Amino acid sequence: MENKTEARQSRRSFVKLSTAALSTVALGALSPTASGQAEKKSKPVEKSSRPNFVFIMCDQMRGDAMGCLGSPDAHTPRLDEMASKGTLFDRAFCNNPVCAPSRMSMFSGKYPHQVDRLSNIKGKTSRYLDFKGSLGDYFKQQGYTTAYIGKNHTYERLELQNYDFVSNRDREAFRAYNKFVQPSWHSNTLWPRERCHPKISTDAAVEFMSKQGGEQPFFMHISYFDPHPPYMAPADVANTYAASKMTLPEYIDPSKLSKRLSDHQKALNYDKISDAELKSTKKYYHASIEWGVDYQVGRILDSLKEQGLDKNTIVVFTSDHGDYMGEYRMVRKSMHLYDALMHVPMIWYGPGHIKEGARISNLAQCLDIYPTLADLSGGTIPSQLEGRSLKPFLDGESTEEPDYAVVATAAYSDLPENYFENPEKPYDTSSGVPFHSRVEKLTWKPEHRTAMARTKDWKLILSESQPAELYHMNGGTIERENVADDSRYAEVLKKLKAEVQSKWYAFVV
Fold first, then answer.
1. Based on CB atoms within 10 Å of each CB, which residue in 9, 175, 346, 464 is the most buried?
2. CATH code for 48-394?
3. What strand order describes the sheet that includes 218-223?
4. What digits encode the pLDDT tens for the residues 245-300?
């Protein structure tokens, strides 16, 4: 499927990147000569006994969008390989349904409300993270060489300079939205692969890793933009998927869940989207995952092996949040806490370090990544972290935890009163902002707080301006009917409400 040029590049252990393609900050820890020390060829450097870490994150990938989890639409051979040779958590959840709060939560080890970021729209006092106390700072304090590659949406920009190697980019210019774009926009990429950011970011990761392997271990984070909308992939990849063969989930009327979700569906005209449009969108979604995520992950794994780093490197893969991708006949994301957006992939891989072939049904959350990495490094887990170490599961010690609860926190704003008497125009010639962005801006302001407490079998969503929602999940990942008003489940609701308030002390509804 890959062209010959890229196939050759993927086999190289070192890829020289052009300065025009990358904005890279490389500080002293990258090489002995860069720190002013003469290279000593007569005496090889002793390799570190501490493991290296590679933390891979993609953007907006659903937790079930992998072949190893039974998706009939996904083609993810390298992620499936990771899962078969590592440990897969099939019930992992993020702690916020959109990018910035979720990423800031992971890298701080704290809930979104604790870092003052509940939606992508900043509040009056909110900002991005400082380096101090973050995951990168932890590894730097432990003597690791650190790298941050790809999408940021986590740190204040100047704070990134504290990493030893930085190579940032977000979305390609050709992905820019315009006012005529529908919410389900999808197409082939418009640039050659060599210019597309998934490849450039992976090239940067390969370059960084090629300079490691000595006395000092490394921590590398790489973040991919895909499969975030607009859903796009190279034509030869997209053409291997037939839209007609894409599967659509059972339709559940959003009014059975909440008025706010039902209003969101209607406001974005998702209630009018056709099966053909949904299937075509899903085709490009999965093609984007294959090219922009799975193939790139495979290149990183191959590079580790080629450079002899694979036996002492631990890799973790996840996403910052999910995507509706057909659920409730919707696509994209929103400021809601349903499993379509909260359920994410999580794979831990490391020959000799991580149990092979394990599939864990216990709940995990993205907040657990920081303490787990700290634990696996042999260091002390910082006391301020809110998550727990997953190391016992990665060592093969699995126990039933029926009452363990994942908590997520977020914010939202309701549609203006009487909105549907004068809704946003899909094609507004007076505005350069696309329709979906205008509608989302109305509902992403941090005006009201919302929170989720989720166990294996139950899920509670609390919102300041809306009634409570309670769902019997029964081990699954789809909400079907709100039973919050059913008196038979009053104790369940009370218990889960206490879980929320134990984490967000000021949250009272």
1. 346
2. 3.40.720.10
3. 24-26, 165-168, 145-150, 218-223, 52-58, 313-319, 346-349, 87-89, 358-360
4. 999 999 999 999 999 999 999 999 999 999 999 999 999 999 999 999 999 999 99
Residues of the chain with CATH 3.40.720.10: 48-394
Confidence of residue 46 (pLDDT cuts 50, 70, 90): low
- What is the chain's percent helix, strand, coil content, to nearest 5? 35, 15, 50
Distance CA 82, CA 316 (A): 10
pLDDT reading at 7 higher than 50: no
Tokens of 132: 């101090």
Nearest to 193 by CA among 8, 325, 13, 339: 8
Enumerate the β-bridge partners of residue 365: 93
Reported pTM: 0.91
- CA 56 → CA 43, 100, 386, distances in Å? 34, 16, 21
274: Cβ contacts below 8 Å, ≥ 6 apart:
none
Question: What's the pLDDT band for 402 if we cut at 50, 70, 90?
Answer: confident
Torsion, Cα 219 104 222 49, to 10 degrees, reads 10
